[in-house]
Amino acid sequence: MNNLVLSVAPKFKNLRRLVLRQDKPQLVDNAVEVIANNCHGLEDLDLSKSFKLSDRSLYALAHGCPNLTKLNISGCSSFSDTAVAYLSSHCRKLKVLNLCGCVKAASDNALKAIGYNCRELQSVNLGWCEEVGDAGVMSLAYGCPDLRSLDLCGCVLITDDSVVALANNCLHLRSLGLYFCQNITDRAIYALAHRNEHQVWDSDKSSRVKEEGLMNLNISQCTALTPPAVQALCDCFPALHTCPGRHSLIISGCLNLTSVHCACAFQAHRPVNALAHHAY
């Protein structure tokens, strides 16, 4: 694959989207440098699982591809947070960023830079980035008000402060992953529920409209949560479902939450014990 990219990239100078996802990592930095030197209009790049790439690749993309709106570098474990921060200062149009598994790259310092530079971000995946803490997530919440999707699964350091900041500042948030974030308590859940009271100005319709609110929430293994808090969240956001076949509220591993029901489950008039969403 590396030789193919080296030979083909210079011939496709108008390339907008490029997927180089690999099962067996082959790409090295010189291939990404050729892409950056020739494909200056590139908007969507997938380099996931490219374990052999170093910071050289990110520095090349920062200089050569300033129009990037989507970047997937999940599993690229060699990238540093310094290189990610530098990239964010040059690729300010980013809307989708996948850093899942980039343990060294996704630090609070990197997220502070991203929150400052990339204000158009809509989707960020920080799954299993165990060094991410409240300072980094809060920087995203304050700096990226258009955030729609945030995956924090496995970010074990974060607390309620992160979720409260997201609830107060990211009114467009639709999907939130908090799997195994065991420091999350009812305070965070109530903050999300109360977000339903916020309204935003819809300039197209010249009227104030309520946000649709959360549509997907993963709180699996968040064992400190109680049924009243999670039920309050379900009551505020009808798009969250615990009923069979529509699991958009994922509570596996939280046996104390099996009494929580979504709105459509209540309307089904089934026996209470048949409505419980059991762990799976």
TrEMBL record:
It comes from the Eukaryota. GO terms for cellular component: SCF ubiquitin ligase complex. SMART domains: LRR_CC. Signal peptide: none annotated. Gene3D superfamilies: Ribonuclease Inhibitor (3.80.10.10). SUPFAM superfamilies: RNI-like (SSF52047). Residues 65-226 form the F-box/LRR-repeat protein 15-like leucin rich repeat domain. GO terms for biological process: SCF-dependent proteasomal ubiquitin-dependent protein catabolic process. InterPro entries: FBXL15_LRR (IPR057207), Leu-rich_rpt_Cys-con_subtyp (IPR006553), LRR_dom_sf (IPR032675). PANTHER family: F-BOX PROTEIN SKP2A, PARTNER OF PAIRED, ISOFORM B-RELATED. This is F-box domain, Leucine-rich repeat domain, L domain-like protein.
